[in-house]
Model the fold of this input.
Amino acid sequence: MGQQQGSLACVGLGMMLGAHLAPRSRSHIEQADVVFALVSDPLVELWLQQMRPDVRSLQPYYAEGKKRTQTYRQMIEAMLVEVRAGRTVCGVFYGHPGVFALVPHRAIAHARREGFDAVMEPGISAEDCLYADLGIDPGTYGCQHYEASQFMFYTRRIDPSAYLILWQIGIAGDRSLSTFATGADYRRLLVELLAQEYPLVHEVIAYEAATLPITTPRMEGMPLSGLIEADLRLQTTLVIPPARPMQCNQAMLDRLAQIDLEIAVRNSPLSVQHQQGEVHVERNPVS
Amino acid sequence: MSNAIRFLETMGSNAATGRLSAADYAAAVARIDAEETQQRALLARDHVALNGLLGGRTEMLFYVNTPSPDDHEANPDDDKDDDGVPDQEEPPYEKE
Done:
């Protein structure tokens, strides 16, 4: 299929007003024929409206009791209608448009399938802010990320020696996809699930990135058991620090040591002499 | 652009503004050409009040993800089987 005239760019606005918008994403916003937006703070939306007074908010597609899958389909279709009409369309999303964000991914995939040019421009996500604010390096102990309800619906292998981060904790356990908050009964089950690996007194963190330069991030510590009654909102992310030390994989370490030994022997002057003759080193086929 | 929003934009983009003393912050707010009520909201760092004064939305919804990567091509009513868990899309790995 030949490239058609319309195009779609889904860009990330970052989390904080004025702080995170990359020049390339800004240029998409400024140059597009049509701009759609879904942001997490009303003042950020006003900021965007001042950049592009004709911006179309995707907020009206949400409704209590309406399935979010339907909302998402409508958001995608709203953008694609304009792309099909031959317009340069920009979808602006808070944070990173491709992190825990189904709508931009699906919209781009649809547009490409229909032969349109479609790109995603990354942004600074809540995850990025979380690492900076909480001083967490995901490389230190490792880090698992799950959508909170998905974590409850499906059997997962939790590693309590790594960080565990649960997103959309405010609607943990919602099977209806049509509500914007779940309560203590749902969280009690989540705590029960987590208590299989973590003590109830283990300190967890309710995190919310700052979206304005006049506010501060929420970094509220509480025991795991405290989650049940905690104030968890749409924007809250649950961070569970490691509860156990990392365990050495001794079998793997032994095998790696064997390879190191073989390489050292192969590279030794004696081995080089032997290789010129008939002696050589073989890998241990067992270990 | 609303000067209050412009002020926030400047604060967001300029690290030095984050290090202002309370007195310097108050002086910076006082220099904004904005209604006194907006200045007061900024001074108190009261974003809810500022949003109300500027006519922003009172409620923001921003979920754009689902627990299961369900197939959005399907009929909206087909999202769930009897198990109550939304269907999954084709996985990126080989099915057994």
Q: What stands out?
A: Residues 31 and 39 of chain B are 9 Å apart (CA to CA). The two ends of chain B are 57 Å apart (CA to CA). Residues 1-82 of chain B form one domain.
